[in-house]
Amino acid sequence: MTTKCLFLLCLCLVPFVVFSSTFTSQNPIDLPSAKPVPILDTNGKELDPRSSYRMVYTNRGPYGGDIYLDYSPGSTAPCPDGVFRYGQVGPMGTPVRLITPSHFGPGVYEEQQIKIQFVISNVEKCGDYTIWKVGPYDREERTSFLETGQQDSKSCFKIVKSPRLLGYELLTCDGALVGTMGQRVALVANYSLDFDFEKVED
């Protein structure tokens, strides 16, 4: 009787052993990777790194306008070297181009590491000075302002969806929030830029 019971028990365990063996570390389950979310312009079209865009205030309200390039206060640089935001709606900002890793595909995506470059007419003289970067820490203002520098600038950024409005926020690649102090674009604790991309027609 005991031998019969042991035999029946073994028969019951065989399917369980075979089934469980398929889920060992040698046979991991492949989970689908998250699909990157493309960034859209004001017309609902995906951004193209070969095109130029203006960074415009999401609400088009009285609290801010487009992003533009100008000289930083006290600058002795040969070209405009500061990132600013108009304090009112109206003036058109300086177009930008988003530089993406070449292996990442043709689009621009949320959370993707990018560089930002102003697109200017005086390329021969100042083209190398238009890449955005985080400037040195300003002890008086207790922040770092965004500046422009040469092509080898190591600063990089990420664009993410704004949790408050329909537009986007800008972060540095190490997670610092980008916003404004007065009209200067700087690293901030809150109050992000909240912007959209408006395509510049050729």
What does this entry look like structurally?
With about 200 residues, the protein is mostly beta strands. It has one domain (about 55-200): Trefoil (Trefoil (Acidic Fibroblast Growth Factor, subunit A)), CATH 2.80.10.50. The chain contains 2 helices and 12 strands, in the order αβββββαβββββββ. The chain has a 4-stranded antiparallel beta sheet with strand order 8-9-10-11, with no helix packed on it. A two-stranded antiparallel ribbon has the order 1-12. Strands 2-3 form a two-stranded antiparallel ribbon. The N and C termini lie far apart (about 90 Å). Belongs to the protease inhibitor I3 (leguminous Kunitz-type inhibitor) family. One of its GO terms (molecular function) is endopeptidase inhibitor activity. It holds the Pfam family Kunitz_legume. InterPro entries: Kunitz_inhibitor_STI-like_sf (IPR011065), Prot_inh_Kunz-lg (IPR002160).
Summed up:
The chain has helices spanning 2-21, 123-126, and strands spanning 53-57, 67-70, 82-85, 96-99, 115-118, 131-138, 143-149, 157-161, 168-172, 177-181, 184-188, 195-199.
Mean pLDDT: 82
CATH class assignment: Mainly Beta
Side-by-side strand order of the widest sheet:
8-9-10-11
Approximately how much helix is present in the residues?
Answer: 10-25%
Strand composition percent:
25-35%
Count the E strands: 12
Apparent shape: globular
Structural class: mainly beta
Order of helices and strands: HEEEEEHEEEEEEE
Number of helices: 2
Gap between N and C termini:
90 Å
Q: What is the count of distinct domains?
A: 1
